[in-house]
Amino acid sequence: MSAFTAQLPDVLRELLASDLALVALFFVFVLEGAMLLYVAPSELLVPGALVLVGERLLIPILAVAVLGATLGQVALFSVAKRGGREYLLSRSWFRVGEDSLDRFDGWFDRWGPVVVPLSNAMLFTRGMLTVPAGLSDMSTKRFVALSAAGTVVFESALAALYVFGGQVLA
Fold it and tell me: Could you tell me which residue ranges the VTT domain spans (predicted)?
């Protein structure tokens, strides 16, 4: 047990050591993918999961991260497709401003669907092309494939940085 995990409340430490740890992480990643997790930067989720749950579950953690984040992004994509731009901008839970959304719309208009996996693989733009993709005529099936591809790159890079970078968080 690391010094960090020793400081966690007993109930949280027990959850993370239980068979339900991956289920809990799945729901965290769904929220992250849907851009509803504002309390933790997405760049810290996989390394944090590796600290809290353990490196022995590296592959399951990556699988849960990709599956959960992709599901969350598909949910946001679907809301954008059905509700439209104005609907999202009017929702208090959608914390992307009109100027930022205009910028990401411009990226999507200029580069097309290729920006979905690219943005998902980059720091600070992760998931930002989900809404413009939802507002386009892109199929859900194509979005899932592109979103998951970028997420695999992003989450794998974070895990590699943690595992091979000296485990700074441990």
Answer: 58-153
Reduced to 3 states (helix: H, G, I; strand: E, B; else coil), residue 124 is coil
- The model's pLDDT over 42-63, given as tens digits with 9 standing for 90+, comes to 888 898 888 888 888 899 999 9
Q: Is residue 140 in some structural domain?
A: yes
**Kind and range of the H or E run holding 141:** helix 140-164
> Residue holding tokens 């965290």?
28
Give me the amino acid identity at 61.
I
This prediction's pTM: 0.87
Residue 19 lies in domain: 3-164
- Cα angle 95, 53, 72 (rounded to 5 degrees) comes to 30
Two tokens, residue 71:
């599901």
Number of domains in the chain: 1
Collect all residues with Cβ–Cβ distance below 8 Å to 58 and sequence separation of at least 6.
50, 159, 163
